[in-house]
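Hey, I was hoping to borrow your eyes for a little while. I've dropped the whole record in just underneath, so have a look:

——
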Amino acid sequence: MSEFRWTVGLLVLLIPACTLAPPGSRMDEAGGAPGSWTATREGKAGIDDRWVDRFGDRKLSRLVAEGYESNRDLRAAAARVERAAAVAKGAGAAARPQVNAALDASRRGQNFIGLPVGGGGGVLSSITNTYGAQLNLSWEIDLWGKIRAGEQAALADLQSQGYAYRGARASLAAQIVRSWLLVAETNEQIALAEKVLKVRKDTAELVRGRFELAAGGQEASASQLRLAETDVATAEAALAQRKGDRDQAIRQLEILLGRYPSAELVGAAELPGLSSMPPSGLPSELLLRRPDILTAERQLAAAGKRIDEARRAFYPSFKLTAGGGQSTDQLQNIFDSDFGVWSIAGQVVQPILSGGQLKSQLEARNAEEREALANLQQTVLGGFGEVETALAADRFLAARAKSIEDAFELADESAKSAERDFSLGTGDVLTLLAAQSRRIELATQRVTLKRLRLDNRVNLHLALGGDYRI
């Protein structure tokens, strides 16, 4: 499979160099690009094609490489590239001379009724054997460029599939990284849930002790004890849920890697630090590096060439045929030049009445081009939107993370104070449980928010057209 992957990779690299493919000169029809991003004023140039390594985990890089090797969807995308290459290879065959060889043999019998004239019995009959060997040549002269236009359209389709493969590869890397981050988050949430369960159990024991011994002259009510025990049961349910989330996340990651979903993969124990911001460049650069935009542009180019092909179908076609060989009634003479036969012919065909077929085909090609243009414009607009959204989200998530961090520090101090006051007998149960709940909630949000910020960095890399090369 490794040889197959490298073959497809080499093919993808060579696709842009196809000289017969229509040039990418219609990108301006997709709409103008703004001078800068509205969500940021930074515009560092370049493409970060090692962005997966920025998470600092070699195991993650190995998992992405495994996905490139074994993911079934990526294999299907690679097969589509190979199929398009085969179609492009044969698209111009009609413009080249076609030569074929043929051997034939026949045996024919005939009765001559009424012969011989007069007496005598029986009917005259004749049996004839014929043997032939021929070499035939045919050539359709592409005077108007119809066949060449079809060949260029097929090459544009090949380029389109090549860019689609690049997009599928980048998307797979992003999916693997996001799934890996989700597994890391669930591991971190499980560790947090286990700590929460221990705190809830310890608190329930303190409340039970006060309930039984009336510590400090204050009696804890049975309802307060039941409330503490309810929090213990809730913490146990939350821990079970977190473990279920991890199991589901691991199985999803294994499917992306092409493995059987057995939940045996071991993920990172905690989330990594926030990776650096990728170079955003200029919006106009996006038109030249996002695979989906380049795919849509090549589809538009192919549609334009198919219009040329449909228009030139109205012109006359010119075809030359020639043949040479031997024809004899004796098999041993089949390769004897004395029995040679040959022919040469030319043909000009001008369509006159086709029942509207040629016209309807041209109209269909024009409609396909309009569709391809609209798809390109929408793809470009969507690409700009994804980058702007990811850039803006990074700023908002950073502000939210700071607020959550401040709130968690205050909640942690409040919970510690409530626990201290309760152990000294000066605090009440409700204040203690509320303070602990607030700290737990903010701790959970802090972990989730960290994963969301990392996910957004992955989305930004993908939106900017950043590929990952192993």
User: Anything to note?
Assistant: The mean pLDDT is 84. The radius of gyration is 38 Å. The CA atoms of residues 184 and 370 lie 46 Å apart.
